[in-house]
Amino acid sequence: MIEAAFLAELPVLAFQALLVFARVGAAVMVLPGLGEQEIPGPVRLGIGLCLVPLVLGPIAGTLPSAPDSAVIAVRLVAIEVLIGLWLGGIARLLVMALAIGGQVAAAMMGLASVLVPDASFGAQSSALSRLMGLLAAVMMLSSGLFALPLMALVNSYAVLPAGTGFPAGPAAEALAAAGSASLELALRLAAPFILGGVVLNIALGLLARLAPSIQVYFVAAPGQILAGIALVGLLLPAMLGVFAEALRAGFADLPGAG
């Protein structure tokens, strides 16, 4: 009797596991720390599969049963994938602030032409931006910050239960707010480099007016780069501290984090 009851419930359990994997797996593919582009896709897929039984147990009673129509089933799975990508994308936008700040700082230092492949941005970026992106990933994993968006993902079933649809309007507003917060944080992190770059270029412009026969910018470029690198070494611990606090505050505002 027990085996017969289990076999009868197996299709429902399998569909519910598929719904959980659709949301959790999609989120893991883009979540900061666990979903870095440097991590092979099969590894990220395996992480998502390992999380399914951990998430399914507590929320199994709130998940819908397998529908009779295949169209409805595909629709439910697609909505779960969209929710997972949305939640993971919001967290990813916040973490990208450090790499964006590094790109701005590199432009102020004169390193914008030193480009390297960047899997996170899908193109080439400056060496400093790439360094900052890798530092963000290392900090997420070493400090345990990656657990905060994971907790928000698990708790998101209380805010957005499976089968209730996707709130397109609030989702777009949340993405816009996350992008705005990420850009604001990036500019705050790069503010010393922006200020130093502006002051230096004004000084070089005045010097070029006073001594037009001297190629001021070619002479000053090595010094500008060296000064920028020294400033990075001096300010990096403080930048990472500000970045970590901003991430904790940003992750606390994720849907389901409260």
Topology:
Layout (H helix, E strand, L loop, with lengths): L1 H27 L12 H19 L10 H40 L5 E4 L4 E4 H17 L3 H13 L8 H22 L1 H20 L5 H37 L6
Antiparallel strand pairs: 1-2
Q: What do these coordinates show?
A:
The protein is mostly helical. The chain has eight helices and two strands; from the N terminus they run H-H-H-E-E-H-H-H-H-H. It has helices at 2-28, 41-59, 70-109, 127-143, 147-159, 168-189, 191-210, 216-252; strands at residues 115-118, 123-126. It has a two-stranded antiparallel sheet. A hairpin with a 4-residue loop joins strand 1 (115-118) and strand 2 (123-126). It is elongated.
Class by alpha and beta content: mainly alpha
> Total domains, how many?
1
- Global outline: elongated
Please tell me the overall pLDDT.
83
Order of helices and strands: HHHEEHHHHH
Tell me which oligomeric state these chains represent.
single chain
The share of residues in helices is over 70%
Question: What Rg, in angstroms, do the CA atoms define?
Answer: 24 Å
Termini gap: 42 Å
The number of E-state strands comes to 2
What share of residues are in beta strands?
under 5%
Number of continuous helical runs:
8
Main-sheet strand order equals 1-2
* Largest β-sheet summary: 2 strands, antiparallel
Given as residue ranges, the uncertain stretches (5+ residues, pLDDT < 50) are none
